[in-house]
Design goal:
Elements lengths: L1 E9 L2 E7 L4 E5 L6 H11 L16 E8 L6 H6 L7 E8 L5 E5 L2 E3 L1 H11 E4 L10 H12 L2 H47 L6 H13 L1 H16 L5 H15 L4 H30 L4 H21 L4 H67 L6 E13 L2 E10 L7 E2 H4 L2 H15 L7 E5 L7 H14 L4 E5 L3 H4 L4 E10 L2 E9 L2 H12 L5 H11 L1
Parallel strand pairs: 3-13, 3-14, 8-12, 12-13
Antiparallel strand pairs: 1-2, 1-4, 4-5, 5-6, 6-7, 9-10, 10-11, 14-15
Helix pairs in contact: 4-11, 5-11, 6-10, 7-9, 8-9, 10-11, 11-13, 13-14, 16-17
Length: 550
């Protein structure tokens, strides 16, 4: 439950701090005094969106801090899941900076709005007048019936299974599309692959073929220059090998006189050995050189295949063709892999459907058993609220579809008068009836849900007299198991509270402020008397107020 609220620089509130107790608390005040501001501040603390218009002083930050006692509500798992420190007295804080940015904290740990909202949804239910429309929403109707049916755990299992099922359906659709696309290209890809495989591509193949083609195409020029080089090396009179031998012999003769000369002689000897070896290689090359027009034709044909493939695939080398060949192999093989993946996914989806069907059936059976309990309690509570002829009917229709809440479709039907046919709740119930129906629903949910706190914002609008008194008794009864706040204009409701807070405006230094105070003793008598008779309080109003309080 909420134990304290601190507000700074928000709307008409400069600074406000208030402690709250358990039980049934009343908040009253004139229209425009700032009751909605309090709810707005509390909503911000629990994760509602904020903007700069919330700041009273646009140059200072706004701070809203709410303290909750959560020791009895099994929220440790939320804190563990979000890596937050758990404290029995948990503090949530929201700051809105003059720049427009906002920050949120849970027990001084920074959190995002989603985490703050998730915790807020587990702490407080703020019910305003316009939210009676939720009664017509299927989501809210399922929340009512499932709370009574104790379907929370089953719905968690169903939700996780449905998420996995939808993901597998998405994966299957993607795999089928990939397979269909692959099949369309299969024949062409196979043709391209066979063409590349037939080329027997090898790394560095092109350079080797181009070198061989160059050699075979220039045999005469090569032979001529080989013979010329051999003649220069071996001529009996002017061959450089003969002269180099004489050059080496001259250096060897002076070698003994100096280490430098000896080194030169060794270098000349090495050069001679290398040139002699080159000469032998030249001779072997000349001996083995021969023209082979047939081989040249084969090499040129291989090169033309390579050049044609490169042009076709818009690349410049064999390595790129090899990469394309590997990619085509993957595409051709992937069709088989996709078929296997599709088969696996189809089996998994069939298993998912069996699991979902079993869970949905259990959820459906629990709902069926909960319907009589809900309708009887609704009729009994509405009779107390001045609707003795009200009848309530819940239709649960099984479906073949998987919805977020199971496989059921739900309709809440209502009849306010004896002899009237049932009709959809949103079509046949008036605004005042919807308010009383919502209170009945909330009072029933309070018996099954573990929500710590509920705030009713003028849920008693449009009713008076004994009906208002009954509504107050119901809210008072709810406060036995949860903390209840009621913002009201009705003295019958205000008198039932365990604690009574008043919102009022003051003017200080020409500036309007909203403030909140806890009324005690005679202050509370005067406030209820004013609610009965207006600003001019009469003795009879005072006596009436005392009677209501007693």
């Amino acid at each position: 439950m909420i134990t304290a609220l601190h507000i700074e620089n928000f709307a008409l509130i400069e600074k406000l701090s208030m402690d709250f107790s358990s039980g049934f608390s009343i908040i009253t005040g004139e229209t425009g005094a700032g009751k909605s501001i309090l709810l707005g501040a509390l909503g911000l603390a629990l994760g509602n969106r904020a903007d700069l218009s919330s700041l009273k002083n646009k140059e200072e930050k706004c701070i809203i801090e709410a303290e909750f006692n959560i020791s009895d509500y099994n929220l440790q798992s939320f804190f563990e899941a979000n890596d937050l420190d758990y404290e029995h007295q948990t503090i949530v804080r929201r700051e809105i900076l003059p720049s427009g940015k906002s920050r949120a904290f849970i027990n001084d740990s920074p959190v995002n709005l989603q985490e703050l909202q998730e915790l807020g949804n587990r702490l407080i239910d703020i019910h305003s007048q316009h939210q009676t429309g939720e009664l017509s929403e299927e989501r809210f109707q399922f929340a009512i019936i499932d709370a009574i049916a104790n379907n929370t755990s089953l719905l968690d299992q169903y939700g996780a299974a449905l998420k996995a099922y939808k993901q597998r359906q998405s994966d299957l659709a993607q795999a089928v599309q990939q397979r269909n696309d692959a099949l369309k290209e299969q024949d062409y890809n196979r043709f391209l692959l066979d063409e590349l495989v037939a080329a027997n591509l090898q790394p560095n193949q092109q350079a080797a073929l181009e070198a061989e083609a160059s050699k075979l195409g220039n045999v005469e020029i090569i032979r001529e220059n080989l013979e010329k080089a051999l003649a220069l090396a071996h001529d009996d009179r002017f061959g450089f090998l003969l002269q180099l031998k004489e050059f080496r012999a001259a250096l060897q003769k002076i070698g003994p006189f100096s280490a430098d000369y000896q080194d030169l002689a060794h270098r000349a000897d090495s050069a001679l050995i290398e040139l002699i070896d080159i000469g032998h290689d030249l001779q072997r090359a000349a001996d083995t050189l021969s023209g082979d027009p047939a081989q040249l034709e084969i090499v040129n044909a291989q090169l033309q295949v390579l050049y044609g493939l490169q042009k076709k695939h818009q690349v410049n080398d064999v390595e790129s063709l090899l990469a394309i060949r590997d990619d085509l192999e993957q595409k051709v093989v992937s069709v088989t892999d996709l078929e296997m993946r599709i088969e696996t996914l189809e089996k998994e989806i069939a298993s998912d459907e069996n699991n979902l069907d079993a869970l949905a059936e259990k959820i459906h059976d629990n709902r069926r058993m909960a319907v009589p309990l809900l309708t009887s309690q609704m009729v009994e509570t509405l009779s107390m609220l001045g609707m003795p002829n009200a009848r309530f009917h819940v239709e649960i229709t099984p479906s073949t579809q998987y919805f977020l809440h199971g496989k059921d479709q739900l309709q809440f039907l209502f009849s306010a008068n004896k002899g009237s046919d049932f009709g959809l709740l949103k079509k046949v119930a008036s605004g005042g009836e919807l308010s009383r129906i919502m209170l009945a629903v909330k009072s029933i949910l309070a018996q099954y849900a573990s929500l710590p706190t509920i705030v009713f914002d003028e849920i008693d609008s449009g009713v008076s007299g004994e009906i208002a008194n009954k509504m107050a008794e119901i809210m008072k009864g709810m406060s036995a198991t949860m903390q209840v706040f009621a913002i009201t204009h009705l003295p019958q409701v205000a008198a039932k509270g365990d604690a009574h807070y008043k919102v009022f405006k003051t003017v200080q230094n020409g500036t309007t402020h909203s403030e909140l105070t806890l009324l005690t003793g005679e202050e509370r008598v005067i406030e209820i008397a004013q609610m009965l008779s207006g600003a001019a309080v009469s003795d009879s109003a005072i006596n009436h107020a005392r009677a209501l309080l007693n």
